[in-house]
Amino acid sequence: MLYAVFCYNQEDVTANWSKEEDDKVMRDLAAVQRKYGDAGKLGPVARLLPTTAATTLRHSPSETVVIDGPFAETKEQLLGFYVVDCASLDEALDFARELSAANPATGSYEIRPLAIYKPSELPA
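RESULT FIELD:
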């Protein structure tokens, strides 16, 4: 089953890492990525740009509004995500634990099963 592993952290903390600190975290995370990639279990990985680069489209039955920035003020921001092919939730949790061990910042990882929709296979 495919799982999305969403990485949340305090953007102001990670944005203030020195280049050396950021490079070390990326190297440590790459070791985890390599392990799962070599096993054929790692799909797309994305590191998101800061929330200051975000644009949000907010829709309700009465109006649609486009605003600068993230949807909501939160303590932690979504900084990136992984797609992993794991046999079970336990295996996906192991992956998230390894990511957590490689990242010195306090944060959280949200794991969700994925349902894949291919537009070419949708009914007319």
